Amino acid sequence: MFECDPGDSPLIVSMPHVGTELPETLLPRLSTAGRAVADTDWYVDRLWAFARRSGAGWLRARYSRYLIDLNRPPDDHSLYPGQTTTPLCPTETFAGEPIYLGPLPDAAEVAQRREQYWRPYHDAIQALIRQRLKHHGFALLLDAHSILSSVPRLFPGRLPDINVGTYGGRSMSRLSEGKVVALLQTQQRFSHVLNGRFQGGYITRAYGQPAQRVHAIQFEIAQSAYMDEQSGVCSAASMAPLQALLEQIPEALMVAGHEDLYRPQPV
To answer: Which domains does the chain have, with CATH numbers?
Structure first.
């Protein structure tokens, strides 16, 4: 259902939307758009591969978000009330195209997918966090995502290249959050925003508990920053400038922010 490498550093990288697989039994029910899984977080595992090589815990979903969205709450309440979002088991693409040819998943099917696919992923996150707390005294969870730079149905205009979410500062200490922003401000090639349209999904909000020495941050990267959105082509060369910047983020948090991450934060 997902790939898990426990690693040995305080960092955990979660990639809940990088999967493209769909159960064979589901395929006959899906539209052409549904089978295309266009809303995949393309190449995010390649973008952050350096973290795995340096010992980070690694969680990589295999199945598409069209089966079940691992970054949505189990009770399916909206993370962005009043804004267009997709549910736990999506029925439309980001562009509003139907994913199913006929009947949509009913409550029983949603519950079955939640137990079979959603819960094991979250059990794994919790296990990796417990290991970090035991061996390092703190845990740093980085939830990695990407999206087309322009999705009119979800947000107006064009996204900044790097969208950082800390649930309005609630999922990570302010000092550590500031270190990320300061790093991004040292360069001018990639635009960035903190807690803009994407403030962090369920994973960031549920597990980021600074008072318990668990810090979580979401990176939503505009795909135009590292690949050709029209053709879908992504090369080592197109990815290299962004990767060079991203590689500095865990180091800045681990070294400069170590004492801050270790110290319990006031609620």
So the answer is: 2-262 (3.40.630.40)
CA distance 19 to 222: 18
- Stretch 158-163: mean pLDDT, rounded? 98
What pLDDT was estimated at residue 267?
A: 42
Other CB atoms closer than 10 Å to residue 151's CB: what's the count?
A: 18
What is the residue whose two structure tokens read 């983020």?
Answer: 249
106: number of Cβ within 10 Å? 10
> Contact 48/81 with Cβ under 8 angstroms?
no
Burial degree of 116 (CB within 10 A; 0-12, 13-18, 19+): middle
Q: Return the bridge partners of 58, or none.
A: 5, 13
Strands 214-222, 139-147: pairing is parallel
Sequence-separated (6 or more) residues with CB below 8 Å from residue 240? none
